[in-house]
């Protein structure tokens, strides 16, 4: 059963707490994307091949997908501020190891350690709900959610200038400095969690969750390279299905489930997670392939021959508009409701994908597309996080928001894999993808945006007027009381 700690004097106000959380989320978001535009540089400097250097991204993705829900659940049990500090220490250790790495295998290991930092997101959302005045929760959650994508966009923008002025090692030294400051500030300023859910963490569900996520994301990440019909990919997909079924069974039998499956079946939760999956498809695919399109030599008949720095700057409008929308998200959610904001965001996001598909002959067209995309995703991200926070009791905020972020990452893997398959299906005589490949690829992302808007229509309306432990839906009374599926404690 959840417990509330005795009230105590706060060490700081919620504004200082928010500044700490924003720094932690920004550092994690930067590390998500800083290496994406410079993989070729890392491949050359570490004398490795393309297949191996791809694991610098894949290992991080896999690790974050595994640790995000686990860290969120542990934070709900032992205290969110304690786990936030532990997560920042792990993120810093991984960044230090990556900055010092002179071998690609060491760098891949460092990225696995950095992936533990994925727990920053659910912990930050949970701390906001615990500590902030009720009327401030939606706005704070919206800004933090927007920062995850803003940081990703800024990472691509900043990577080129950092590597040009220094070298790729500084892609890890700079975030390390932010992480160290955030860890010190967390220890000094973030108050103890007033709400906890005691109980041990079940090992078997955690192991099964890790196993099926590894199999699924490995198959999706390597499908374009290994072949979708290859024995390895098919075997991994079958293993993912079998292990996922075992995980569901283990969670239902567990006295202390890692993820409350009844909570995940709540209408506001599963519909929001479906939208997150489809939004992730578009966001990560754009991060990965728009810079490649821009860097294609003009001799191919399309592209602009942009440098890493120039292609990053074309994504700058994305970060600017997304952050601006994140700042306004609290008022928008309060005024129109989170469902309306998610629906507006996913609808707006369809337009820039169509622009990228059919109107990409000038740089200004792509700058306009990325600016509009930032508006759409900014609206969707902020309101989705608010929906999750409102839909579940406070003691389950960490694991619920962690799974939402995790599902978005899985959507990103699907989007990157599908986009890769479409773009690389045909090649020019020079070995470059054809323009038609990019056209159909971005059109497919527009289709994912339409699907996300349709999914947003399924989200039930949730009142945004309060953020208390009282659930807004009758079925949440069972969750709040601890009578969840698989709870054998009675």
Automatic annotation (TrEMBL):
DNA-binding in keyword set: no
Main location: membrane
Domain of life: Bacteria
Major facilitator superfamily (MFS) profile domain sequence ranges: 17-464
Pfam families given in the database record: MFS_1
Compartments where located: Cell membrane
Assigned keywords, A-Z: Cell membrane, Membrane, Transmembrane, Transmembrane helix, Transport
PROSITE patterns per record: MFS
Lipid bilayer topology: Multi-pass membrane protein
Transmembrane segments: 50-71, 83-102, 108-128, 140-162, 168-190, 202-220, 226-249, 270-294, 314-334, 341-362, 368-389, 410-428, 440-459
Protein name per the record: MFS transporter
